[in-house]
């Protein structure tokens, strides 16, 4: 008879171990697929209540800044209990977390008055057992069971709780990381929203500055057509035509870099180059004054950068162009017979040295001539394989399309560059200005309203 009783005890123990292993397997499986940490914690506690008899309620609390926050519960706990805070060291859960040791309280050792939570006291439990949640020695919370009046927790129950606690600790860490990531993401989204608003305002301001230069206009024998495209929301290319009594001044420039810093320098230099009195014999002085202003501002702002500029004056009296360059690509002049020449007047970009001197040159023009002044973003446009659009292709197009109007030539350049890029966005800002020299007529001598 004693042997039969021992056999029955061993069988029950084996069944209990099998049941616990199945429960632990279900917990581990749920951990791999769960996307809701609170739901997973509740599943853990439900499994614990099935594994450990006489468990009236089970709860998981997380340690955050000196308090324990109830993250999940199983049993007749109201929804209000979730999120409840218990000071570290207070109550049964606080004692478990504070000392970092498992406890079993029952009989004379258990007093309902030691239960911190009014929601748990209302259950009138008769015993409690708890284990700390730890990850690599760091205490992250506690898991506590409350038994009914007849409950008797054992060392085996504590071992089960400790097995479950390792999974719960990982889930609580996931909750904490997810909360931090969510908060950080919200902060970044708000910063991005504010930045987008500022960039939209900057883009509108820059458009207003750029659009002072009309897309096309006519003065005397000259027709002009302009184009500008930024690689980012705001850009650093300068473009301006300034009509005068005896012709028009124009400049095309390129600020080192892209984006907001380049746009700020672009705005400053556009104002600087547009403000002085303009005369054909002052081009060198205009560039020298702008260079000194830029060098001073870069030093005072503790910034770095330089600006290339091609500055010219188209004279209706004598039909000529006087030009100066600050490190900018030469203007391309194609004649009616198809010959092409570069308007070279090289010197250092603006902002390199404050005492740089600039030289102006002059060239006679004739009806049928076409002039292109551009930034390097045009010839550095790339196709899908990384190849550059290049000077040769641009010069060939200028010669082939030289008989068209300024607007026709501009549109052909834009179409050819876009076809070359095959849908890829430009890597740099692009700006250029086309000038066509026409036979002067009474109609063409009227200045554009701009």
Question: How would you describe what is shown here?
Answer:
The protein has 450 residues and is α+β, with helices and mostly antiparallel strands. It folds into two domains: 2-179, Beta-Lactamase (2-Layer Sandwich); 200-437, 4-Layer Sandwich (Phosphatase 2c, domain 1). It has ten helices and 17 strands. It has helices at 2-33, 37-51, 91-99, 118-121, 155-210, 259-274, 283-300, 376-379, 391-400, 406-421; strands at residues 55-64, 67-74, 85-87, 103-106, 127-135, 138-147, 216-219, 222-229, 237-244, 247-255, 307-315, 320-326, 331-334, 340-343, 360-364, 370-374, 430-437. Strands 3-2-1-6-5-4 form a six-stranded antiparallel sheet, with helices on both faces. A six-stranded antiparallel sheet has the order 7-8-17-16-13-14. The chain has a five-stranded antiparallel sheet with strand order 9-10-11-12-15, with helices on one face. Strand 1 (55-64) and strand 2 (67-74) form a beta hairpin. Helix 1 packs antiparallel against helix 2. The longest helix is centred in the middle third of the chain and has 56 residues, at 155-210. 38% of the residues are buried.
